[in-house]
């Protein structure tokens, strides 16, 4: 038996403290994604220091992604009725300590173990934080707050990872890890200071996760969209550097600027989608991604590549926030359960996309990654159109 605690009527607009809490969560997501992708920019020096090949160092990205996919629903279930503020602080603390351990170790096995702990913290934090906006701000501002929280993902790509890579280049990869770990402890202090108490409304049970996926068509459609969009995106985007260099002749000097522009476009797309109807946004996103990936495969030249990459960034930037809004709208009574499933499927889709893209490059050709991405996003267009039709309210039947 569960009991609910009635809350006083929420104001129409959130106060400064509420927005400080939202920004603290945003900074937490920013820190998670920066730390997750950190080895990508520091691959060579980490390989030398840890005494393993660059391909083996790649496991420091793969392992936490897989662990996060498992830990997101698991942490949500095991959390029971623990206050979510306390849990978020513990999880970001685990992320910070794991990143600190990675910076200090000289043994690859210890680094892998630290990244396992990091993956647990990342999956659990994201699962709880992704659906937190309705508990922090009034109803009219939930869309805006959700967009801010998910902007941490795009901001990490634009600012976090390049900054950490720069620190690693001018100092060492250990200094970069220490800097990210320090940022994690700053997030911990901000969450402790600004987050209100967040008592659990009810304990999430494993059966609830299964029911959401099997019986809620809106949730099922959202998860299928994640699989198609994120898998398709990472099938091609994992190899975006050779695509731009080999297929479009983009020079190494212009590549960094172009990827920076892609990230800025992604942040813009995130906020544009956060303030619009999610289904219309997803229709525009899926169509744009299908067209862009096909155009990149069919055309050539750096000028065309610049335009297409900016459109790609603008479109993909709205994926996370739009699908999260669809899922929360389909299961408003279970925000933690639905967000945990969202995070699990999202991380699995990243791993699947990178794997499929690698096989396509090795066995077929580089342009094949773009055609696979185009096919996946074209299927996503069909899912958006049919799921919207399927969820229209039906006339009530007489008993």
UniProtKB/TrEMBL annotation:
Keyword Transmembrane: yes
Domain spans labelled Major facilitator superfamily (MFS) profile: 21-392
Xref: SUPFAM superfamilies: MFS general substrate transporter
Subcellular location: Cell membrane
Pfam families for this protein: MFS_1
Membrane-topology descriptor: Multi-pass membrane protein
Listed InterPro entries: MFS (IPR011701), MFS_dom (IPR020846), MFS_Efflux_Transporters (IPR050189), MFS_trans_sf (IPR036259)
PROSITE patterns reported in the protein's UniProt record: MFS (PS50850)
Top-level taxon of origin: Bacteria
Statement: the UniProt record of this protein carries the keyword Secreted: no
Keywords, ordered alphabetically: Cell membrane, Membrane, Transmembrane, Transmembrane helix
Protein name in the entry: MFS transporter
